[in-house]
Design brief:
The structure is a single chain. 38% of the residues lie in helices and 21% in strands. By secondary structure, it is α/β, with parallel strands linked by helices. The strands form 3 sheets. An 8-stranded mixed sheet has the order 5-4-3-10-11-14-12-13, with helices on both faces. Helix 4 runs parallel beside helix 5 and helix 11 runs antiparallel to helix 12. It is globular.
Length: 300
């Protein structure tokens, strides 16, 4: 009777309290990671991740956002090719893209725990006939070693150290890590302000890419010593147009293309305006080669 009453009482608690109780109980036994069911099937994550993995446990979404749906449209319209996921975390975006599309996949993840969980999750969920490779390293402007700051509460917020202590990890350039990837090529990048390093050390790979989905965090990039204005110039020179509002799953309403320079400079101004309270302000942007958006949306 007592056991049933306890179980009923726990189930009636708000999710946040239930998760905290579960986490603290697990930690008391030395358990730091678990496998949880969800939209992508069983997914391993860190119990201290109060953002990405906790949301998955709550079955409140897989945190992959619109990227898998965009990738589906990209490869359906342009043909099978390659998909590079820079900052793959534990596979929330990489797994559905590779599972649903017969493309060559490359997942890059620097954080040791995330990389290990990514390998396990991919082995568990991706069909055996799919082709993919996992690279445990940070994308940087040159090869070597670099310090990575691990966020104790958000495994998606791990970032290259700028004046902070961190964990030493391998650093690679994108061109060296993935030479001559197949085309058409789609790149997704979410590395907490380090996205410009993809261009610095990946000119050949970026040149092959028809579209790139990036998280643009101008102030975080600035904190790393990156010349954000120079990055905007470089991105606009390679990808003349951009879109930062789209819907490939719901209404089918697509935002119009705009000049990449105008798009990124607007985000830069917005980030500056809210810098005091949201220094990590970002927006997701699709950078596009000429004609790509028209092909994807069916617009002439």
């Amino acid at each position: 009777m007592l056991r049933e009453m306890l179980a009923t009482g726990i189930c009636r608690l708000p999710f946040r309290l239930r998760y905290k109780l579960f986490r603290e109980t697990a930690r008391s036994f030395g358990i730091c990671s678990v496998i949880a069911p969800g939209p992508l099937g069983p997914l391993e994550g860190h119990l201290d991740d109060w953002t990405i993995f906790r949301r998955y446990v709550a079955n409140a979404g897989d945190w992959s956002g619109i990227v898998p749906a965009f990738a589906d449209r990209f490869f359906q319209r342009l043909g099978a090719g390659g998909y590079i996921d820079v900052g793959a975390n534990i596979g929330q975006t990489f797994i559905p893209v590779i599972t649903r599309n017969s493309v060559a996949g490359f997942a890059i993840e620097a954080a040791p725990f995330n990389a290990a969980a990514l390998r396990a999750n991919c082995a568990r969920s991706i069909p055996a006939d799919r082709s993919y490779r996992i690279i445990e390293a940070a994308v940087y402007e040159r090869p070597g070693r670099i310090n990575l700051v691990l966020d104790p509460y958000n495994q998606g917020n791990n970032h290259i150290a700028y004046g902070e202590a961190g964990v030493a990890v391998a650093a690679v350039t994108l061109d060296a890590a993935i030479p001559h990837p197949p085309e058409p090529l789609l790149i997704k990048a979410d590395i907490q302000g380090a996205e410009p390093y993809i261009f610095t050390g990946g000119a050949e790979t970026v040149g092959r890419c028809q579209a790139m989905v990036i998280e643009f965090s101008p102030l975080l990039s600035q904190d790393m010593g990156i010349d954000v204005d120079a990055f905007i110039d470089e991105a606009a020179g390679i990808f003349p147009t951009a879109v930062n509002s789209w819907d490939f799953e719901g209404s089918g309403i697509f935002a119009p293309e705009q000049a990449t320079r105008d798009c990124l400079q607007r985000i830069q101004r917005q980030a500056t305006a809210v810098a005091e309270c949201h220094r990590d302000y970002y927006e997701d942007v699709i950078l596009l080669k000429p004609g790509t958006w028209a092909t994807l949306t069916g617009r002439a």
